[in-house]
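Deviation from plan, reported transparently: magnesium ion complex.
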Amino acid sequence: MQYDDNSIMQKDPLIDKILISSHEISNRISQLGTEISSDYGNSVPIIVNILKGAYMFTADLSRAITVHHEIDFMAISSYHGGTESTGVVKIEKDLKSNITGRDVLIVEDIIDTGRTLDHLLELFKTRNPRSIKICTLLDKSCRRVVEVPVDYRGFEIPDEFVIGYGLDYDEKYRNLPFIGVMKP
Ligand code: IMP
Ligand code: MG
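Because the crystal trials were delayed, the predicted structure below was used instead.
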């Protein structure tokens, strides 16, 4: 599907600019899909969609992956101390799948301090999967506090609060087809 990013943006005076267009997102996801498909040629990975932010990315990425894979969902909420996540995550909804002995690919919308994913990785490791990899659409690596191994990265972005393509501001703006920045 194609979107007119500019006309969508112009309808909302609170959006400052388009950081990554819907076209750029879709091109990058095709590349990631090709890479992931060739890396998982010999297994059926479980793709773990971290709700809510990664729902749109996961839907498009899944269609760009040409090898068999399963999809599961995990809903977590991170506790925030001030503006940063503390990494203390509450599991709102756990996986249905048993990941023991399986190849797991975690799909995230954005990695900021790294605390949330670090916590999740530790939890998943206790379930003894065969492998765990991380795919994130966006990486604000300049903000990293805890190192996390990122296997697939859509875009490196500057230290700005972004919205759209699944990411929210106060639960809104998830439906934008592009990644945008709010007006200060
Ligand atoms: P971390 O634990 O600091 O890596 O937090 C990552 C989580 O914070 C992401 O999964 C998002 O839910 C949220 N987050 C971080 N930066 C942004 C942003 O720019 N826009 C929207 N959500 C964000
Ligand atoms: Mg998130």
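The chain has one domain: 5-9+20-182. We consider this an acceptable substitute for the interim report.
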